[in-house]
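Checked the freezer inventory, then went back to the computational side. Two predictions to log before the end of the day. The first one is the construct we discussed on Monday; recording sequence and tokens without edits.
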Amino acid sequence: MTQGSKGDKFQGRVLIVAGSDSGGGAGIQADIKSVTALGGYAMTAITAVTVQNTLGVTNVHAVPPAIVREQIEVVIGDLGADVWKLGMLGSAEHAREVTNAWYDVGGGAPVVLDPVMIAKGGAALLAEDAIAVIRDEMAPIAAIITPNAPEAEALTGIEVRNLDGQKRAAEILVGKLGAFSALVKGGHVPGAIVRDVLYTREGVRVFESPRIETRATHGTGCTLASAIAAHLAHGASLADAVEQARAYLMEAIRRAPGFGQGHQPLGHNWTCKAP
């Protein structure tokens, strides 16, 4: 892995670059909750302010790319970061600015890249021209890229409708697009068992868990990626980080508070003792 070395002293610091969710279920809010619940320290560079709740996104206000970069630079210059977690970027300009910032001030920190394209309610969160930037410029700096099936299809150009499709997409993300590893998630693939495919240059591992029938699915992708980032920031291996993050996510789904009338948020704080 080129992002960070075995000798690095990890301190649990995660820089999150993503959009804000006013409903608190996804985006920056889910990221901060997940990292904090897992004992990490969350810092942020906000790319957009979304107007949303569990029923959907009604508006998006982008933060200028230069301001996103300034947030990154002041955080890194003062606090440092063990891992970067990249979520909603919005535009090609934002994606390119963040990529350049990583090269300039990232110090080789591992990147967890969650290529957020569509909100749970169906609203587009990524411009069409930004997909090419994520594919061609961001994927090569990713320690791990974590697309769901539709996102994997957009990045690779192949159908991802079953386990074989997940494996082929993951292989392309690593072997052709240059990511160090890929986790192609199976939540959008039909079936009673959810399978997530982790592909690295050493081989393939398939994680399985029973599908939980629930409306509490808002922010699952953000939560999983941030949980992976938190475990990596504490020094976990890639496979262990994925395994532990999946366990955290499954329990957060099971312990969802039931808030909202649409796609409900998760119980991110289940690891914390009640007051």
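The second is the one RB wanted added to the comparison set:
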Amino acid sequence: MANLGIPQNTIDILQKYQFNFQKKYGQNFLIDPSVLERIIAAAEITREDHVLEIGPGIGTMTQYLAEAAGHVTAVEIDKALIPILQDTLSEYDNVTVIQGDILKLDVKGLMEKQSGGKPVKVVANLPYYITTPIIMGLFESNVPLKSITIMVQKEVAERMQVGPGTKDYGALSLAVQYYAKPEIVANVPPNCFIPRPTVGSAVIRLTRHEASPVQVEDEKFLFALIRASFNQRRKTLANGLSNAGELHLSRDQVTQALENLGLSPTIRGEALTLEQFAELSNSLKKA
């Protein structure tokens, strides 16, 4: 089968099947062999690995994954791409293609069936509009993950990696860093895709922590607290958290908890580290 990383081969396949790009699925197919090789290298794919690929498209990266991995399970939402994938991946007996929406699938059940409960590496070129729900869904579903190596909008990748005190720091930064160590491994310009996106992209690898870097009494409460802290960025934590209905906290409780941690009542969420959020969460939970 022709290497789809070569632009002309991608164009030939798209013409053969008269494929129309679906804006609602945010489809941008990668056409740069060097970027594809960097993704495989960054994900450290070996013959021992079971890979979950989200959004294989016409199978460009799937071909590279199949060459490197033990087995690849590829989940594609667009029904129109299934016959194309059957064609472009026909030479590989270590690929399973599943038509479905990753956000609605029981990913844990699927991977137990496919990989027998072995740790999984996720690789994906994600549509920008659903990057966050997919990543959070994977972490929260208790799938045995080793790492997630994904192509996302450059801004989003930067947001996952930054620390306190920067304007990009927010709920996504904290949630990702709670579960994994983020590292941007490549910046990818728009001309590496067909059709060209309007923004730059980046490949980021999220290596799952063996054990969480912080100890929290109640994970759900921690994340509710983090979300409330950034919902109204301009507000002080004391105001933002006491206004958040779902938390049922009084201004006095929040102020007291902050003072117990040696923090000013006028501090804002963007100034707190993950460790401080965990301490605050534990302290408020007790209160």
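For RB: The chain has a mean pLDDT of 93. The chain has two domains: 7-208, 219-286. Let me know if you want it refolded.
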